């Protein structure tokens, strides 16, 4: 549950608060990613643009599911299945779609290496800290002294838990001195761990086999992290997919 205003008014302009948070986060990660890619010898300008393409692709996929599509057939049946399970799974589909698009786009240019993926590690992690601080979120009721008061009750400040977990991940990954493959694997595992920690304090919805959408995504990420540990150090990620 978010506790910030749903909209922000800038004179005559009214914008959803979530849009502002995502826009700031996107600009932040773009700047960090460009520098990180350039530092490792990649084309930061061009490849940062791929991120925008991937975000738009994932968003369109998400909206197609939640808004609907004309016609009938397999797509309509798939959409109905997703929405019957829970709208949160449409967001998981959009997220995975954006990631697949990004990897595929980079794969066509032959740049998908563990070193290229390593360039994303710290920018993504630091952006997650920023986004957690921009979008305040409360979870289950609590009697802990650090609980956030809202509507006459006290709740877990889940956004702060996320920020602390992601900040720890950023600190640990910054100090980690290992191969690009192991660094990427560690990052994905830590990201998933941060999500699972936060989800423990949330009132979960859209459960499927007792697991929420964000938890399914975290479990997928842990599996991907484990996969990254097992592949050959000199083999590019897309060669093993």
TrEMBL record:
Top-rank taxon: Bacteria
Signal sequence interval, chain numbering: none
Keyword list, A-Z: Membrane, Transmembrane, Transmembrane helix
Membrane-spanning segments: 19-37, 49-69, 81-104, 116-138, 158-174, 186-203, 209-231
Protein name: Prolipoprotein diacylglyceryl transferase
Organism: Tumebacillus lacus
Organism classification: Bacteria, Bacillati, Bacillota, Bacilli, Bacillales
